[in-house]
Fold this sequence. Notes:
By secondary structure, the protein is an alpha/beta fold. The protein has helices at residues 7-16, 48-55, 61-71, 75-88, 101-110, and strands spanning 2-5, 21-24, 38-40, 93-96. Strands 1-4-2-3 form a four-stranded parallel beta sheet. The longest helix is centred in the C-terminal third of the chain and has 14 residues, at 75-88. The two termini are 13 Å apart. The relative contact order is 0.24.
Amino acid sequence: MIKETDFKSMKKRLLEDASAHFYIIQNNPPKYLNFSHIHPCISLAPSVPLAREYRLGNITEEEYKEKYTKELERPLVQELKTWIQNEAQHSDVYIVSESADRFLLIDVLKN
């Protein structure tokens, strides 16, 4: 099953389910996250220019979501999507991010 969590709750999730896999959706993931079931996944994070444009208020939330969804259509992301979906059939998979992007990403991964 594909689930979501933030960094603050990740430790609790790790303790609850040691077999779960965690995908860190962040452009610069922390270096201390070096475990076999924790996967930094920069490819699933919004591009740096897109995130910057949104943070600076140059685009609306709706434009941001639309552009991020389009970024998630890249071939590499489609391969990761298939990989994560297959993994989720055998164990819990958590999408980890501090932003609400994880909810949009989960919608894309489930479809």
